[in-house]
Amino acid sequence: MRIFALILLSFCFVSLVEGRTKEEWRNRTIYQLLTDRFARTDGSTDPCADLSQYCGGTYQGIIKNLDYIAGMGFDAIWISPVVENTPTGYHGYFMSNLYKLNPNFGTEEDFLQLIDECHRRNIWVMVDVVANHVTSEITGGDYSKVIPFNDSSYYHDYCQITEDDFLHNQSRVENCWLFTLPDLNQSIPFVRRTLINWIRNFVNAYKIDGLRIDTVPYVPKDFWAEFSNAAGIFSIGEVTEARYEYQGGYQPVLPSVLNYMLYYRIIDVFVKKTSMTDLKDHFKLIQDNFQDPTVLGNFVDNHDQPRLLSQVNDVNLWKNALILSVLTPGIPIVYAGGEQGFNGSGDPNNREPVWTSMNPKSALYKFVSTIVGFRKSQKTWTLQPQNPIYADVCYLYTLGNALIGITNSAFDIQVQTGNHPFNVGDTACNILAPNKNPECITVDKDGSILIEFTDGSPKIFLLKSQFLAHKLRAFRDSHK
């Protein structure tokens, strides 16, 4: 392959391209997809017979459905790891050859075309990468077919990581194995140098805009600092340990991490139905423990966790959770299928083929489009939530010129408040209310308004003039 030949010759020459920074990524909204599960080249929509195996999604399938993604307002995609994997590595995490692309997803020309087509639409491409381990499909300790790490001396000796290690023995986390995945030893010069040179040349050869880095805590921080610097672009690391200070300790090393602390609060509030007053402590702990909360990767669902709708059969709860992830500080990431109400539980059931239900007229597709469109039009990444009101079953806050309200209850709730961005006599309307049944409120003489939650639906109030402009803009966007 032409470009991977360039990577193999990286010691001779490196041609750098301008990298996307965290400042540039801050205003992006990411659509996460598994390449194997998004769309097929031939456009077929029959279900996958076995979700633990390849199902047929390709780069050409993505290209043919970029309008579906752009129609929701997304301007970035996060795709699966692209290197060659062993036979069951449909997800991309079973690397077998660092220097070849996975042929199940298409050719190198297909991959290049995907990147070009995305860039033509101002959609940036974030690629998932793995530097912690290789495929677990190894027989009898024979690594001869793993390229270029084809000898057992490149790996840590086998020992199993335990949950207790995260609390008491970080050395074991970094030097033992995650499950049965052979753990690369980055302290070996060949391993370290190879991975660093590979990422530098991979990013530049393919004009990659961003990275999602898998299994970050399992490798020493000094390696990630060098790896990230070599890539020269924005990266988001995966750190799942449920402690603010632990996760926050990786942001000085990498530009960002996935906001698992927000994810755990979302599960608490919307699945376990804990008090929404817990969010107050959450936001303070985020500020106290993270270097830059505005670039954390916020999400409700992903391919490693059971979908929220598999845990609660209530679409309104998903809507409220989505607003919390999209319209609070951070870079929003929406997992493919959420816009169609997918409800897969654990792996691999949460990795459903999107092609079975790719309907741009569905209610949730339109809802996602509205939320993403609101984020863009109001440039909410430049704003901080103000005047918060925390209650057991609702959370209201001002964001620029808007008043946002979310709830985890389907019961009738009334909130009388003077904490809002409007003036006496102003009328504000909810952009999420149906066009046939508009919901507007007027500020009383005492400066207060009455917010009524009646069915668990979230609310975003704008001044009536801004509301009408928003609706007109949304109408024009939907008829482009």
Strand order of the largest sheet: 8-7-6-5-2-1-10-9
Unreliable stretches covering 5 or more consecutive residues: 5-17
Work out the oligomeric state of the chains in this entry.
single chain
Query: Helix/strand-derived class?
Result: alpha/beta
Largest beta-sheet characterization: 8 strands, parallel
Task: Tell me what you see in this structure.
Helix 11 (244-248) links the parallel strand 7 and strand 8. This protein has 480 residues and is an alpha/beta fold. It has helices spanning 2-8, 22-25, 35-38, 59-64, 66-70, 108-120, 163-168, 170-175, 189-206, 221-231, 244-248, 260-271, 278-289, 308-311, 315-326, 363-378, 464-478, and strands spanning 30-32, 76-79, 83-85, 95-101, 124-129, 210-213, 234-237, 256-257, 297-299, 331-335, 386-390, 394-399, 402-407, 413-417, 427-430, 440-442, 449-453, 459-463. It is globular. 32% of the residues lie in helices and 17% in strands. Helix 1 runs antiparallel to helix 9, helix 12 packs antiparallel against helix 13 (278-289) and helix 12 packs antiparallel against helix 15. The chain contains 17 helices and 18 strands.
